[in-house]
């Protein structure tokens, strides 16, 4: 077994960087070249078809059959010119990835000859077999069909020889089976609610979009080492491995110079990303060795989510070309930093205003404060829902870990804004305000600096931090489809904004003027949301105690976190706003429980296998060598000499033997616990038992293996060690 490890290491030493040539030095010359964007639509579509599509995009409408036929003609022309032979509906089922089923353009024509055909019917809708996708019991076994339907707001793109049409995915009976359908609903709810509030400030606002920029963190490891680690191949993380003597303690990787082979990989995937219209902008080394980050310029949320999914897929594919494997798992290596996907989120109007950016005068700043406070209130009221949206098996290794946000969802604002909110609380009165009081308040508000970036002294430990002109939702995991987080956040804010409008209008009805009414409600919200505002170190134990005092929940259990989707408060937000039906939400939660159970199950199986079939035999082999050695000593030396010399070896033998016995015992126990858990019918209870009874064995067993790694002869250790995985490239 150790041969695989050493031949892998040799292979890596001989690797050369694989340079790629972009089509042009100027990105602007080939950006979007593989996308059927508005520009190309204008060229390839008839005038009528083009204006219909544009309208559909702007208004979030779908196309009629005839309109779709028109669009299909132009799309087909573009596709064939670009060498496409196939098309697929590209969707986001409730797995961790995207799905595609390719169909050729070919059809048998009237005269029996093969022709290329692509109709409007297949452009807008398709009926893939849904039976093998997670559905949480929605899909009846006798009705396995699902429907995919074109999401016109996300443009068609081409990958290789396949045209990819972004679609939603619903069951035969119309329930969402994906992340996109509910996301689009949440975004349109937010649009409506936010536009309504904008009317208080600016009548020209007719559309509000939510914006998202995802900072994608990831690890790279060499392909040869990857194949020598079955745990990484099957679970995308190391299930064992002693900490490397040196890893990130010197902080010498963060923002360090990017290694050449890695740089070639990055340039390659960035080039492909540009062709697909993904505006990747920032790249840098992250904190842990072999950890990196890629961040695009923010876009409208739905598009940004699609682009992030596409980018992850692209990175996986391009990495193979460079003999790398990219790991999106939140915690591939114990003891060093994990990976997140910071979701930078804000809202923007059709008039070009970022609603979470301070403006130039009291009026625009009152608007800014209105949105700011409403977001805070939403995070306060939907605290459990927000956590549920980011909690899953792989992220649970990170959330609550010492370097990542804890499972307490709080909001960081920075001292300037905290003071601002405090002054609103102290200055706004229940009674009618005097003109002098109003002027004073507005003066203060008018003084908020336009650029707050420097005032929001970055708090890296907060799960939800205001960073000057947007919120950074940091608890999102690196492997997640951020659709889940975006559904929860946008739905919660939309719900909150609707409530806000009702409250303000009621006060206006009672005869108060608009500004005063807004102030009064804001004051109330600030007071009600106080508990969620936290400026200190979120990793500290004091915060856990403080949060408990504030009655902020701290739920690190994954199934329990997920179950919070079903609290009356969460249901009111998600079902009340029409983002989910009852059935959809329940089934989704079921899918999440099952995903959790299965992932722990896979990890337990892989660990059991490696422990018994790789580690124990290796340890036994080494122990046998030691035993032979001890016997040899006995043959050669006198009794007293022997006693003196053999002591340390005997101790080692006992030590190894104890670890072996412990591993065997623990693996057996773990198998028994799994057997007991597997017969539980209820998905929640099963997940809970997996978490409480099975998952702890993963840590316990690895402790013994990691100890063995330290004492067993390096020559025969079968698996690449942390120092090799993290520093060889
Ligand atoms: P950091 O210093 O937090 O690592 P990065 O430059 O890596 O920052 O990433 C910041 C992300 O925030 C980028 O994707 C950027 O486009 C995004 N961003 C900036 N403004 C907004 C906004 N108004 N809405 C959403 N995202 C934004
Ligand atoms: Mg960054």
Structure characterization notes:
By secondary structure, this protein is an alpha+beta fold. The protein folds into 3 domains: 31-176, Glutamine synthetase, N-terminal domain (Ubiquitin-like (UB roll)), CATH 3.10.20.70; 187-580, Creatine Kinase, Chain A, domain 2 (2-Layer Sandwich); 595-727, Four Helix Bundle (Hemerythrin (Met), subunit A) (Up-down Bundle), CATH 1.20.120. It is built from 25 helices and 17 strands. Strands 9, 10, 11, 12, 13, 14, 15, 16 and 17 form a 9-stranded mixed beta sheet that branches. A hairpin with a 4-residue loop joins strand 16 and strand 17 (471-473). Helix 12 (362-381) packs across helix 16 (435-446), helix 12 packs parallel to helix 18 (514-529) and helix 23 runs antiparallel to helix 24. The longest helix is centred in the C-terminal third of the chain and has 55 residues, at 582-636. The radius of gyration is 29 Å and the shape is globular. The model has no long low-confidence stretch (mean pLDDT 93). Bound molecules: adenosine-5'-diphosphate and magnesium ion (MG). Residues 211-213, 215, 282, 295-298, 344-346, 354, 469-470 line the site of adenosine-5'-diphosphate.
Quickly describe the structure:
The chain is α+β, with helices and mostly antiparallel strands and 729 residues long.
Q: Under CATH, the topology of the largest domain is which?
A: Creatine Kinase, Chain A, domain 2
Structural class: alpha+beta
- C-alpha end-to-end distance: 21 Å
Bound molecules: adenosine-5'-diphosphate, magnesium ion
Task: Tell me what portion of residues adopts beta-strand conformation.
Answer: 5-15%
* SS field, number of helical segments: 25
Q: Write down how many β-strands occur, each being a DSSP E stretch of 2 or more residues.
A: 17
């Amino acid at each position: 077994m150790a041969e695989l490890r050493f031949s892998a290491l040799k292979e890596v030493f001989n690797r050369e960087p694989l340079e790629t040539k972009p089509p042009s030095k100027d990105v602007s010359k080939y950006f979007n070249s593989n996308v059927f964007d508005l520009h190309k639509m204008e060229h390839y579509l008839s005038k009528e078809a083009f204006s219909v599509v544009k309208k559909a995009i702007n208004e979030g409408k779908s196309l009629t059959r005839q309109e779709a036929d028109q669009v299909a003609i132009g799309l087909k022309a573009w596709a064939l010119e670009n060498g496409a032979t196939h098309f697929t509906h590209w969707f986001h089922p409730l797995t961790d990835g995207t799905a595609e089923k390719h169909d050729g353009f070919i059809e048998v024509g009237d005269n029996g000859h093969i022709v290329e055909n692509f109709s409007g019917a297949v452009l807008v809708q398709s009926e893939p077999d849904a039976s093998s996708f997670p559905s949480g019991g929605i899909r009846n076994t006798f009705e396995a069909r699902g429907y995919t339907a074109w999401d016109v707001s996300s443009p068609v793109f081409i990958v290789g020889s396949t045209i990819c049409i972004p679609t939603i995915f619903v069951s035969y009976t119309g329930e969402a089976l994906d992340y996109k359908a509910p996301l689009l609903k949440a975004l349109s709810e937010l649009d409506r609610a936010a536009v309504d509030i904008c009317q208080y400030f600016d009548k020209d606002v007719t559309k509000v979009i939510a914006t998202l920029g995802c900072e994608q963190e990831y690890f790279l490891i060499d392909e040869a080492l990857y194949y020598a680690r079955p745990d990484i191949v099957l679970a995308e993380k190391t299930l064992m491995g002693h900490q490397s003597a040196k890893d990130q303690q010197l902080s010498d990787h963060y923002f360090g110079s990017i290694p050449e082979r890695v740089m070639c990989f990055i340039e390659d995937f960035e080039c492909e990303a540009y062709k697909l219209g993904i505006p990747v902008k920032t790249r840098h080394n992250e904190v842990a060795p072999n950890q990196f980050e890629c961040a695009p310029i923010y876009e409208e949320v739905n598009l940004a989510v699609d682009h992030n999914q596409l980018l992850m897929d692209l990175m996986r594919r391009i990495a193979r070309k460079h003999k790398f494997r990219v790991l999106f798992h939140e915690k591939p290596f114990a003891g060093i930093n994990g990976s997140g996907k910071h979701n930078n989120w804000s809202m923007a109007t059709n008039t070009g205003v970022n609603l979470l950016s301070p403006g130039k005068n009291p009026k625009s700043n009152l608007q800014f404060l209105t949105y700011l406070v409403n977001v805070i209130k939403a995070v306060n009221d939907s605290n459990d829902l927000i956590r549920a949206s980011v909690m899953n098996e792989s992220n649970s290794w990170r959330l609550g870990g010492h370097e990542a946000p804890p499972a307490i969802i709080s909001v960081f604002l920075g001292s300037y804004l905290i003071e601002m909110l405090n002054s609103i609380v102290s200055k706004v009165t229940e009674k009618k305000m005097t003109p002098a009081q109003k002027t004073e308040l507005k003066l203060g508000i008018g003084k908020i600096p336009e650029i707050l970036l420097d005032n929001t002294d970055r708090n890296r430990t907060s799960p939800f931090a205001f960073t000057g002109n947007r919120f950074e939702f940091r608890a999102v995991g690196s492997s997640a489809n951020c659709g889940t987080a975006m559904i929860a956040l946008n739905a919660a804010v939309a719900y909150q904004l609707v409530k806000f409008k009702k409250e303000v209008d009621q006060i206006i009805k009672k005869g108060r003027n608009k500004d005063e009414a807004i102030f009064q409600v804001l004051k109330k919200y600030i007071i009600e949301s106080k508990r969620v505002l936290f400026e200190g170190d979120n990793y500290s134990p004091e915060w856990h105690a403080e949060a408990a005092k504030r009655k902020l929940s701290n739920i690190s259990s994954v199934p329990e976190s997920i179950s919070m989707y079903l609290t009356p408060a969460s249901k009111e937000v998600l079902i009340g706003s029409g983002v989910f039906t009852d059935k959809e939400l329940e089934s989704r939660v079921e899918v999440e429980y099952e995903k959790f159970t299965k992932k722990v199950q896979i990890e337990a199986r892989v660990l059991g296998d490696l422990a018994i079939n790789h580690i124990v035999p290796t340890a036994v082999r080494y122990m046998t060598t030691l035993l032979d050695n001890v016997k040899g000593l006995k043959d050669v030396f006198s009794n007293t000499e022997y006693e003196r010399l053999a002591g340390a070896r005997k101790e080692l033998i006992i030590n190894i033997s104890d670890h072996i016995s412990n591993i065997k015992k623990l693996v057996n126990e773990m198998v028994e616990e799994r057997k007991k858990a597997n017969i539980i019918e209820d998905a929640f209870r099963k997940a809970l038992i997996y978490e409480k009874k099975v998952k702890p064995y993963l840590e316990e067993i690895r402790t013994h293996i990691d100890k063995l790694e330290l004492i067993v002869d390096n020559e025969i250790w079968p698996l690449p060690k942390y120092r090799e995985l993290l520093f060889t490239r």
